[in-house]
Write a structure and sequence with these properties.
434 Repressor (Amino-terminal Domain); 53% helix; 94 residues; 5 helices; 2 domains; mainly alpha; elongated; single chain
Length: 94
């Protein structure tokens, strides 16, 4: 799996430039954006959502039940009573 570092090396730019292009931030010339996008495509780079959430101090609940099903719930996606149900599910599967 390609990393941000791999994309930066291939495009000949810094990791912060790659990040700015991926996050569609200002301050990057169009020619540089094209080089980075080409490198992303060549490497098959896919941003890591978990890492992004950690950086943004966002969190989620991930639970695997007895059948192997995985439940992923992003913070703020549930009401208080629903959180209680998720906690109960966790307790049942410990």
């Amino acid at each position: 799996m390609a990393s941000l570092h791999d994309v930066a090396r291939l495009a000949g730019v810094s990791k912060s430039t790659v990040s700015r292009v991926i996050n569609d931030e200002y301050g990057v010339k169009e020619a540089t954006k094209q080089k980075v996008r080409q490198a992303v495509a060549e490497c098959g780079y896919v941003p890591n959502q978990v890492a992004k959430d950690l950086k943004e101090e966002s969190s989620a609940i991930i639970v695997q039940d007895k059948t192997g099903k995985v439940l992923f719930v992003k913070e703020g996606a549930l009401e208080q009573d629903e959180i209680a149900k998720v906690i109960e599910l966790i307790k049942q599967n410990i």
